[in-house]
Amino acid sequence: MEQRYATSPDQVPGLDTAGLRSRYLVPDLFVAGEVRSVLTHHDRMVLAGAVPTDAPLDLVGAPEIRSEQFFARREAGIVNVGGPGTITVDGTTYDAGHGSCLYVGRGAEKVTFASTDAAGEAGPARFYVASAPAHTSYPTTFVAAGEGTVRELGDPLTSNRRTLTQYIHENGVRSCQVVMGVTQLHPGSMWNTMPAHTHDRRTEAYLYFDLPADARVVHLMGLPDETRHLLVGNEEAVISPSWSVHSGVGTASYSFVWAMAGENQAFDDMDGHPITDMR
């Protein structure tokens, strides 16, 4: 488990491209036959990727979280961004297709990932995990792709028509603090969020997926009056501290998983920053 310490906004102006990427970009989460993870001290979120191929993979604890069992004091949302697979939680198996979501509550003892068609046309499942500390337990709950709370947002005239599906949130699958969903851009739309915003009470992470290999998302970050950008490829994640805006535009259509942890779960608790005011 890679560990990254929290950062403050006054560090950003002095960082070069490599410095920005090393602190906020999370590449190489998805490696065949492995579970890889990054712990950020921003709200102590853990981002992980699991790609089971010829054998199942277990999600286990690590010294960085001082726990032999990953879920001893944590909860997580899991989205499959690859081929079909299964997630088994303490003996109960869930069939997880592309874009589906599983919430796993605190206290789960054994969580195992497997692929259904690892060697076939669909390829292996690619499970993305976003986890945060939890003070109590909520039941493990599965939601199939597109079956959460669906919001149609944006306008094709501003190139940000998108379908936002909330899975784990205050009016959906219950959790202590993890909030998670998937946003899919409509054909011809490239902006994922506009206006850009911050929410000073939560850390957010974006995982971009279904992006062509030769395409990139230009992800805006930093203070609204001191923005920087990251060029992000398919299945790469961005850590967005509470003080940072997060918005992006792609060179092709794409989807992304958004996940948050922090003081509250209110979807609309955000501070918008019109593009005309940003620098």
UniProtKB/TrEMBL annotation:
Keywords: Isomerase, Metal-binding, Zinc. One of its GO terms (biological process) is D-glucuronate catabolic process. InterPro entries: KduI, KduI/IolB_isomerase, KduI_N, RmlC-like_jellyroll, RmlC_Cupin_sf. Gene3D superfamilies: Jelly Rolls, pectin degrading enzyme 5-keto 4- deoxyuronate isomerase, domain 1. GO terms for molecular function: 4-deoxy-L-threo-5-hexosulose-uronate ketol-isomerase activity; zinc ion binding. Binds 1 zinc ion per subunit. Its EC number is 5.3.1.17. SUPFAM superfamilies: RmlC-like cupins. It comes from the Bacteria. Pathway: Glycan metabolism; pectin degradation; 2-dehydro-3-deoxy-D-gluconate from pectin: step 4/5. It catalyses: 5-dehydro-4-deoxy-D-glucuronate = 3-deoxy-D-glycero-2,5-hexodiulosonate. Its cofactor is Zn(2+). Zn(2+) binds at H197, H199, E204, H246. Catalyzes the isomerization of 5-dehydro-4-deoxy-D-glucuronate to 3-deoxy-D-glycero-2,5-hexodiulosonate. Belongs to the KduI family. This is 4-deoxy-L-threo-5-hexosulose-uronate ketol-isomerase.
